[in-house]
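This week, work through this protein record:
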Amino acid sequence: MSASTGSIPTTGSLAVPTARVMPWVAVWGAVFVCSWGGNQFSPLLLMYEERAH
């Protein structure tokens, strides 16, 4: 007997329900945006130090 998973993504032989995957996509997006925002101004820190002491 083989189970048909339809359009549900699978990892190996286990089906991964979309309801379990979607919250992690949102978490990944939030972490990515926070990381990007935190590092956006980092290259300017040397210039700030040079000009403002």
